[in-house]
């Protein structure tokens, strides 16, 4: 018997989401044998750090031990938000979340994706706390039993982030013979609106939603089967964001550098501050370059040391985590983005390259390979040698020279999700199938 289905993956709205990445190092304490309710709570005295995502009972000091792991970290919002959602792509076995002492509830289902509403958050620093219990407790833990034939790990199985737009699309097949699907707009403020659905990154279908739903035919639809695993994608555009949602970056707002003026060269670093990043070189070079400024958005285990290193230079500014509006302000003021990564980081093309391209920025980069090739192809920046302050200062001098071949629109389009998803689907369909 042959199986044939109509497969459509919903990519939600076209507008960018201003996520706050909460992955990385968290303060940590393990309390063996204790349930969440028996632990010290958010004020616990940390004894270690723990990586998120990661499972604490796979670490040597807590290997296969049962109890509750206590996690804590801070994040910063430049502006207040009316609402946000803490998104966890799988944890175990039971978790309690709190932000600034406010209890966000306890969730007993391991492995399931969680979207936990936070309510309003003010501008400034916030503390998030999580208690993850990996004990087998028939009264409190759901869908986790000792007689199951696999080990239940304690910790975060996948990433954790804070999002400001929880809208999504649900797709239901109504007639696989004609490619007809019903699309439901979930968590949208209004149920009746006009919008444009973009299938496979290229085929636009204008439609009207009534009571949050619309029925359309998938353009050029192909059925999915094990022999021919065709898969369609769909995204929704032309629908205003909810009031609490941050706006996507406007690539036209970035300021081009005029080589004929003496204006300061404004650099932007967006991302983590971990051991893979050559931020010490960047800071030292900017300190030695009187007409250069540096804004850093993000955080990480090296942040405190980097702040101390730059403390005597007011031209270097740390911003922590930002919402989309504040981040757009930084992009609008910047002339160039920085990718200061060591070649042994095992990164091919970091996400920040796409962010810089979307904002129309040129790039100072230390990564060889694919990243360097992309920047060279679009005349989008310059290369420096990681760990070499003189090399970085030379790269800054290169940025001040005219760049007539820089094509910001083409550079941005190289990372267009609609084009990339369509190409990815086409590639998947060329893979050899199992007999």
Could you outline the blueprint of secondary structure elements for this entry?
Blueprint: E1 8-13, E2 20-21, E3 24-32, E4 48-52, E5 54-55, E6 67-77, E7 85-89, E8 91-92, E9 94-99, E10 102-107, E11 113-117, E12 124-133, E13 155-156, E14 160-163, E15 168-175, E16 180-186, E17 193-199, E18 203-209, E19 213-217, E20 232-237, E21 265-270, H1 279-287, E22 292-297, H2 303-309, E23 316-320, H3 324-333, E24 336-339, H4 351-358, E25 362-365, H5 370-377, E26 381-383, H6 389-399, H7 408-413, H8 417-430
Parallel strand pairs: 1-20, 21-22, 21-24, 22-23, 24-25, 25-26
Antiparallel strand pairs: 2-14, 3-4, 3-6, 5-13, 6-12, 7-11, 7-14, 8-13, 9-10, 9-12, 15-16, 16-19, 17-18, 17-20
Describe the structure.
The protein has helices spanning 279-287, 303-309, 324-333, 351-358, 370-377, 389-399, 408-413, 417-430; strands spanning 8-13, 20-21, 24-32, 48-52, 54-55, 67-77, 85-89, 91-92, 94-99, 102-107, 113-117, 124-133, 155-156, 160-163, 168-175, 180-186, 193-199, 203-209, 213-217, 232-237, 265-270, 292-297, 316-320, 336-339, 362-365, 381-383. The protein is an alpha+beta fold and 435 residues long. It is built from 8 helices and 26 strands. It folds into 3 domains: 8-15 and 169-245, no CATH class; 20-163, Jelly Rolls (Sandwich); 251-413, 3-Layer(aba) Sandwich (Rossmann fold), CATH 3.40.50. The longest helix has 14 residues, at 417-430.
